[in-house]
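Quick one: NADPH-dependent ferric siderophore reductase from Streptomyces avidinii, structure tokens please.
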Amino acid sequence: MTATASDAPAVAHFRFFELEVVRTRRLGHSFLRVTFGGESLAGFRSGGFDQSLSLFLPPSGQEHTVLPSTDEDTWFAAWRGMPEEERPVMRSYTVREQRRTTDGADEVDIDFVLHGDTGPASRWAGQAVAGRRILAIGPAVAENKSVRFQPPADTDAIWMYADETALPAAAAILDRLPAGTGVRAWFEVPHEDDRLDLSTAADADITWIVRESDGRERTEQVLNALRAAGPTAAVAPYAWLAGEAATIRSVRRHFVQERSVDRRAVRFTGYWRLGASEEQLLAEAYAGKAPSEDPTSEL
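--- reply ---
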């Protein structure tokens, strides 16, 4: 999920945390879970569901993240003003799970999508070892604006679409849904062994869309899977959609135009854009902005 400075949260609800890698675990062909600890996590307050935070990953060749400032008023300008080769990479990720262990330690899991050395986050995660430290801006209160999953009170069904970049967020949402919640979900992944075993108390019907098994264009493949599902009896469904921006726009149109979902009950987020690097997206967001001015960016 690409971070922009507009994702930098309000100081009352968010602050800097130092995270230390405790362990890593491969979940599938494309997924790696990194478990972080650290004393500062005692003040971390995830709101669950699709809670996000901003990670600052050290440049290649550095083990730990170093920022010139973590002050609430000066960190962004100081970070942006760093030489490019020294500037930590800022990326937004989902808190997959937060817990306190039996010995009283606080831990946070973050799931990364691995695609070799083609991106700084994938490269860092693939090389992560216990003891390495990074900085993050994360929630200090559980009710915060970075929890985007907010179904209306009268919702009678949850409909979800996520590609691999949004699957950790979708999985975290499923974790929190209560028994009896009707869920229809479509999850797109690159490889057959990326079909994860997801736990939920909800009554969830999950369709996996595996790209490697079909030569069609990705958006067409997703829409065909959605249309094959047919109608449902839901009266007031809530749709949560996240992934590649162009595909998300098409999926949103499907739900609003073909399934007559109230557009106000569709929460959609473009985590990335096909053909554009994360650095290009950030450059677009920063264009014409002063060094201390947070850009606003919509994928």
